[in-house]
Amino acid sequence: MKISTRGRYGLRLLVDIAEHSNEGPIALTVVAKRQDLSEKYLQQVALLLTRGGFLTSVKGSGGGYLLERSPASMMIYDVLDLLEGNICFEEPVQGEENAIERVIRLHVYQKLDQEVKKVFEGLTLADVTKAAWFTYVI
C-alpha cells in the first residue's frame, strides 16, 4: 500500500492548518508556499476535506480554511480513508474462492488490514502536531 499524492497533500494541509490555527483562516496560497505544494492540486484536496467534514471554508477578504473540529477528534485513518478510498489490502471475494486464495486472504491480507487500521485509528491529527520532534522541525 502506498499513500497517494492526494493523501500526502491532505495530511500536510491539515497539519499546516492545525499548526497555524491561531492565525485565523489560512489561505491555500500560503499553505502551498509553506509546504512547497501545487496550489491547484491543493484546492482539489481541500474541497474533498471540506465535503468530508475536516475543513471549513471561509469566503471573502481574509478568507481561507479552518479546521472543522479539534485536531484531537480527527483520526488519521478517517482522513486517509476519505482521500484514498478504502485503504485495505483485502479485496472482496468474487465468485468461488479456492483454498489458497482463502488462506492468503485470511492470514495475510486480513491481518495486514487489522494492523494498519490499529495504527491509523489510534493516531489523531493532534498526535501528529504535538509530537515532540515536530516542534524542532518548524
TrEMBL record:
SUPFAM superfamilies: Winged helix' DNA-binding domain. This is Transcriptional regulator, BadM/Rrf2 family. PROSITE patterns: HTH_RRF2_2. One of its GO terms (cellular component) is cytosol. It holds the Pfam family Rrf2. One of its GO terms (molecular function) is DNA-binding transcription factor activity. InterPro entries: Tscrpt_reg_Rrf2 (IPR000944), WH-like_DNA-bd_sf (IPR036388), WH_DNA-bd_sf (IPR036390).
